[in-house]
Structure formats: C-alpha cells, structure tokens
Amino acid sequence: MMDDDFFDEEFYPIDELLRRYEKVKSGEASFMMQEEEFEQIIEYYFQGSVEEQALLACDIALTYYPFSVDILLLKAEILTQAQKYGQALIVLDEIDQLDQTSLDAVLLRADVYLSQYKYDQAAALLEKKSSDFSGKDKAELLLELADVYDEAEDFEAVFDTLKRVVKIERRSEEALQKLCFWADFTNRNEESITIHTAITDEDPYNALAWFNLGSAYQSEKLYEKAIDAYEFCVAIDEKFEFAYRNMADAFMRLKWFENALEVLEKHLEIAKPEDVIYEAMGFCYEKKKDFSKARYCYRQASQLSPEDDSIFYKIGETYTRQKQWEKAVKAYSVALHLNRENASYCMAIGNCLMEMDVKNEALICYLNAVRLKPNNKTTWVALIKGLYLSGFYDEALTQIELARENCDDKPDFRYLQAAVLFEMGKTKEALLHLETALSGGLSKLKMFMELNPENLKRTAVNDLIHQYKKK
Known about the structure:
Layout: H1 14-26, H2 35-47, H3 51-64, H4 69-81, H5 85-98, H6 103-115, H7 119-130, H8 135-151, H9 155-168, H10 173-185, H11 189-202, H12 207-219, H13 223-236, H14 241-253, H15 257-270, H16 275-287, H17 291-304, H18 309-321, H19 325-338, H20 343-355, H21 359-372, H22 377-389, H23 393-407, H24 411-423, H25 427-440, H26 445-451, H27 459-470
C-alpha cells in the first residue's frame, strides 16, 4: 500500500484526488485540476515506485500546464531515478528555456552527469552556474561541487571548494563537518587552523568552528591548544559529544589522566553509555595504577560490547599488573574463546601459567601462538624462553633453528641460544653465539641477563659485554 502521509490536508483526500484524476485522464472531467493537485498525483505514483503512471501523470499535467517548471522537474527526477539519463537531460533543457535560475534543475543536471561518470562536465556546469547564485543557494551549489570532486577523487579540490562555502555560510553545518574531515585527510591542518581561527574571531559563538579548530590543533599534536578550543566549543554547546571525546583524547596524549577522566565522566552525563568511553576511562585508571577501577570500567564496556575480545584482554592485563595470575588467566581465556586466532592471548595465558609454575600447559599455549603467527619473532621468543625455563634445552635449540627458518637470524635467537648452551655446559659455543648476538646490537642483552643473572659472574661473559659496550 502506498504511503500518502506526505499529502497536504488542505487538498482532497488521496482517494478523492485519484478519482478526479481518473476522470481527467479518461477525458470525462468537466472541471480543471490545479497544478498542485497534479503534483500530488505524480508524487503519489513516484513514491509508490509506479514509474510509468508517474510519467503519464506528468505528461497529462503538462498538457494543462506546459510551462510548469515544478512538473518538469518532477518528470526529470523520475527519469533520472529510472536511469533514463538522455530523456532526463532533454526535460532539463526544456526547463532551461523557461527558467535558467532554477537551482534544483542545475543540481539535478549535475546528478545526471555524475551518474554517467561525467565528472568534468558536472564540475564545469557547477563552476559556471555558481556565479549566477548567491547566499545559501550558492553555498548549496558549491557543496554539490565538492561532492563531484570527491567522486572524481580530486581531494584537494574538495577542500578548496569547502573553503569557498564557509566564506559564504560561516555556519553551514554540512560544510564545517566536511571541512574538518578533509583538512585531516589532505593533511592541510595548518590551513584549517588559519581558516577556523578567522571564523571564530568573526563568530565567537560558532561551536562547530571551535571544534574544527581543536581537531586541527590535535592533528598537529598541539594538544593544549586543542583543549582550549574544545573548552570554548562545550562552553557554547555543553552537549557537543565529540568535543568531549576529542578533549579526553588530548588529555590522555598529555598523560593528564585525571583531567581526561573528568571529561569522560561529563560525556557519560550528556550521552548514552558507550563501550569506547568506558574503555578510555579504564585506560586512564590503569595508567593511574588504580586497577580495580580500571577493571570496573572495562567490565562496563564488556557489558555494552560482550563480543569484544580486546576488552577481556585488558581486564587480564590489570590482573597481570597485580600478579593475580589465576584471575588473569580467566580473563585472557574469555578473550581467547571469543577470538581463537589471536596469538597474543595464547602468549598472555602462557606467561601467567609460567608464573603459576604450570609449565607444560604454558608450553602448549606458546606452541599455539607459534602456530598462529609462525612469522612473528615474539611468539618464538616466548616459546624458546618457556622451554629454557622448563629445562628442555635440546628442544629449545631445535625450536631456535625453526625460528630462524621462519623469521631469519635475529639477535634475540642468538642471545637465547647462548643462554641455553651455557646451561648445557657448552661454554665455548655459548660465547661464540653471545658474541654474534652482541655484534647485532645490545638492545636485547637485558633478556639474556634476566634468564640467568649468574652468567654475568663469568669473566669471559663480562669481558665480551664490556668490549661491545665500548664499541
């Protein structure tokens, strides 16, 4: 059934209007239908997707009102939607002969060109016609031009066109929102700062302009200036959600976690709860080492997004920071249950099980991590360290060779091999691998030292380390 909610009640009810129209169509009518009544009939069929009847109604209406731009526009719109672009252009040519100042006709013609992938023609038309309009009409036409440049992937031109719009309409919500995105996309944030500073100087109560200014500063990593701009924004519009989000992010970048929490709390007051807000709060509390509050926030986030495995991983991380290994394993296990293909979760569980002295189960976790990410050095290092700590030295050497096959020869593997060989009593061979590792860089030396600090009491080891530290 067709929806007739859009009909104006001052005219006949649709059933009565259709009855009158049928009489006109059959030639039985002794009365004249008004132009607006024909428009209602056309809209009725158009909205009901009865294209042929809509076009027939247009043609009948045009016999009575041959110079009606509104009816011709309806016909052109119906033809465009039906992808009959050539016929639509013919009708638009008729409109041009009647009225060259019809903004709707210009926009529709541009849409037809766009649908035909004639980007240059669409852009040329809109550029030419832009001089014929002013004020809001010109702004609307330029917004269409920006969309054309977007379709043509001329992104610099999109930004330049939006600049023209905001010169005309300082408070064009659509233009300002798009300008913010394209400034960042085209890496023209410095220019965006200049533009929006000028707008806020001229119109200091323009909340969206203040937001854009903050966003541009934030993209340039000028976080304190960004915060100042966002504070102006929310002072004007205290329910501007994205300003609070971005402000909190800026505070977090500055590591001002208490300030970030205040802003996020405000966001919760003005908007409906979201997982990302609770996650951000959890992060702030975690950085403040308030792990119980961090977990509370992460759990709130998990209730809103129960399939998000990363949240449960974060809960596990808070327990790990407190060395509550069993609770950490439970949280990591939920994350792994939700995402079986995540090697990091396997390693996290393995690390906890090693701390709990459940080494065989830990090694199974490390093996799973290697299976999932065979080209990732970190998974191999975790497995080899686990084998070393479990006393499986021969197997550790075997896995080191396999690790090299998958990840090439890294200093990490040399340090691990040296540590294993020292435990096996193969001192000379161990020193050779240690020297190779040291020549590859000292950044991973700490790992070797932590595996068995007793190795530092070996004179030959100390001499080698000092020799490479001097270099």
